[in-house]
Amino acid sequence: MLDENNEPLTGVKLVAVEDHDVLFTDFEGTSELTDIRNTKVFKVEYVGYESGYIKVSPNSKKEITIVLRKK
Fold first, then answer.
1. Is 90 exceeded by the pLDDT of residue 46?
2. In CATH, what number is assigned to the domain containing residue 31?
3. How far apart are CA 40 and CA 43, in angstroms?
4. Residues forming beta bridges with residue 43, ordered by sequence position
5. Is residue 62 within 8 Å of 32, Cβ to Cβ?
6. CA dihedral 15, 63, 5, 47 (to 10 degrees)
7. How many domains does the chain have?
8. How, if at all, do strands 22-24 and 40-45 pair?
9. Cα–Cα distance, 11 to 8 (Å, whole number)
């Protein structure tokens, strides 16, 4: 997760819409999804930034970069 200046964002929350699993990004702005067997939609939330959704499937890229915009 990056901000508009390509700086990593720590503590971005990803919530799986269907089963409410929660993940947070680390100090480098990264988080790891493991064992994705079915397509999942995650809500991406961070204080002071616009929320959004991302769909992740077993066929998704190995690395996904998300850039968040300030409100």
1. yes
2. 2.60.40.1120
3. 10
4. 15, 53
5. no
6. 10
7. 1
8. unpaired
9. 10
